[in-house]
C-alpha cells in the first residue's frame, strides 16, 4: 500500500486515519534521518555561500515550500558541469535557488533564459545573484513561458540550441512545454522536468488524503510521466531527488 505523503494516526475510536503530510522540499526518502545525513554530510558543508544566503532568505517566504531543495541544487550544479552546459533555459524561477545553482555552474559567457509569471519573487533573490557575480548570465522574462516558446519555435535558428532546460512551473502545462522544448534542445542535450513524483501522490490510492493542489495536478503528472516514457526522441532517467526529477536526453 502506498503511504508516501501520509501519516497514520490513531483516532479516538481506535480507527487508523490518515492525514496528508507535506513532503515539500524534503526528499522522498522515507527516513528523515537519512535525508538529514545527506544534507549535513554532503550538501551543506559544500553549499556555495550565496546559495546558502538565498536559501535562508527564501525560507522566510510564505511559499517557501516551492523552492528547490539544497540537495537538488547541488545535483543540478554538478549535472550542468558534467555536460559542459553553456546555453540553458529555466521555466519557473520563484526566488531563484535553482537559477543560482545553474548560473554558478555555467562558464562566464554562459546564458540562462529564465521565465516566470512573477517578477517580485525573482527580485527577492536578485541582489544575492548579483553579489555572486553571475547575474550577467541571466535574461529574465516576466510572463507565461508558453507564448515565449511559441515565438522562439517559429524561428528555425533557435532549434537545437539549448544544452540544458530545467522545467519547474505549472505541471498542467508540462506536456505543452515538452512539445516545444524537444525542438529547442540540442540532440544530446538535456531537459530536466521537476516534481515528477509529485509529493509521492503518483502512487497514492484513489481515497488517499491529499492536499487540494496535490490532488489537482496529480493526473497531469501521471499523464506526463506516461508521455515521456513513450517518447522515442528521448532517453529518460527518473531520479528520487527532491520531489522527483526526470532527466531527458534528446536522441533524435
Ligand atoms: N525553480 C524554483 C526554485 O528553485 O525556487 C521554484 C519554482 S516554483 C516551484 C514554480 C514557479 O513557476 C513559480 O514561481 C510560478 O510563478 C511559476 N509559474 C507558474 N506558472 C507559470 C507559467 N505559466 N510560466 C512561467 N512560470 C510559471
Ligand atoms: Ca520543483
Question: Which kinds of small molecule does this entry bind, naming each only once?
Answer: S-adenosylmethionine, calcium ion
Summed over residues and divided by their number, the pLDDT gives a mean of 91
Main beta-sheet strand count, sense and barrel state? 7 strands, mixed
- Under the CATH scheme, which class? Alpha Beta
Q: State the end-to-end CA separation.
A: 38 Å
Tell me the series of helices and strands, N- to C-terminal: EEHHHEHEHEHEHEHEE
Describe this structure in words.
- This protein is of the alpha/beta class and 252 residues long.
- It has a single domain (6-250), classed as Vaccinia Virus protein VP39 (Rossmann fold), CATH 3.40.50.150.
- Helix content is 38%, strand content 21%.
- It has helices at 32-43, 49-59, 70-82, 97-105, 119-131, 145-154, 174-184, 212-229; strands at residues 6-10, 16-20, 87-91, 111-116, 138-142, 162-167, 185-194, 234-239, 245-250.
- The strands form two sheets. Strands 5-4-3-6-7-9-8 form a seven-stranded mixed beta sheet, with helices on both faces.
- Strand 3 (87-91), helix 4 (97-105) and strand 4 (111-116) form a beta-alpha-beta unit.
- Helix 2 runs antiparallel to helix 5 (119-131), helix 3 packs parallel to helix 4 and helix 6 runs parallel beside helix 7.
- The radius of gyration is 18 Å and the shape is globular.
- Bound molecules: S-adenosylmethionine and calcium ion.
- Residues 66-68, 91-95, 97-98, 115-118, 121, 144-145, 168-170 line the site of S-adenosylmethionine (SAM).
- Calcium ion is lined by residues 68, 168, 194-195, 243.
Amino acid at each position: 500500500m502506498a503511504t508516501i505523503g501520509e501519516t497514520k494516526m490513531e483516532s479516538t475510536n481506535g480507527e487508523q486515519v490518515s492525514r496528508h503530510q507535506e513532503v515539500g522540499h524534503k526528499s522522498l526518502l522515507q527516513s528523515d534521518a537519512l535525508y538529514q545525513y545527506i544534507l549535513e554530510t554532503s550538501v551543506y558543508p559544500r553549499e556555495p555561500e550565496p546559495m546558502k544566503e538565498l536559501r535562508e532568505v527564501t525560507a522566510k517566504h510564505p511559499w517557501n515550500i516551492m523552492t528547490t531543495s539544497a540537495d537538488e541544487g547541488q545535483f543540478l550544479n554538478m549535472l550542468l558541469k558534467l555536460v559542459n552546459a553553456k546555453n540553458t533555459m529555466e521555466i519557473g524561477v520563484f526566488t531563484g535557488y535553482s537559477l543560482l545553482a545553474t548560473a554558478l555552474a555555467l562558464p562566464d559567457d554562459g546564458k540562462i533564459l529564465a521565465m516566470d509569471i512573477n517578477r517580485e519573487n525573482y527580485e527577492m533573490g536578485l541582489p544575492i545573484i548579483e553579489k555572486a557575480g553571475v547575474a550577467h548570465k541571466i535574461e529574465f522574462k516576466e510572463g507565461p513561458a508558453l507564448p515565449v516558446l511559441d515565438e522562439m519555435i517559429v524561428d528555425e535558428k533557435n532549434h537545437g540550441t539549448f544544452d540544458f532546460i530545467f522545467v519547474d512551473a505549472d505541471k498542467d502545462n508540462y506536456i505543452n512545454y515538452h512539445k516545444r522544448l524537444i525542438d529547442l534542445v540540442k540532440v544530446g542535450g538535456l531537459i530536466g522536468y521537476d516534481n515528477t513524483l509529485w509529493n509521492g501522490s503518483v502512487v497514492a490510492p484513489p481515497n488517499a488524503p491529499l492536499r487540494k493542489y496535490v490532488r489537482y495536478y496529480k493526473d497531469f503528472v501521471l499523464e506526463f510521466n506516461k508521455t515521456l516514457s513513450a517518447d522515442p526522441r528521448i532517453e529518460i532517467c527518473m531520479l528520487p531527488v527532491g520531489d522527483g526529477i526526470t532527466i531527458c536526453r534528446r536522441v533524435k
